[in-house]
What does this fold into?
Amino acid sequence: MTVAENTLENLRLELRRGCLVLAVLAQLRQEHYGYTLRKALATRGMEIEESTLYPLLRRLESQGLLTSQWREEDKRNKRFYRLSPGGETILTTLLEEWHTMNAAIERIV
It folds into this structure.
């Protein structure tokens, strides 16, 4: 990989990380377990690997943005995630920031 390709990849990953957090928080306004969350995001064009999703969910929960609950469904225990009340407040603020930044970038580009 060339220096330019490496730089581009690093910048893409940095941009994607922030977008993934926003997408996951927004999608978890409705309760999901990991697999259904991945599918819902993918259906809307935001693919995410399990190796990225589950650490992200644990981090967001430890930050108080999500709540989770183990339940049995289809004879299997599954951990269901949902946006916490504090997470809803943070999501609203982040979406306002994102809209402002997106509009500014559109004007610049």
In short: The helical segments are 3-27, 34-43, 50-62, 85-108. The first helix runs from residue 3 to 27.
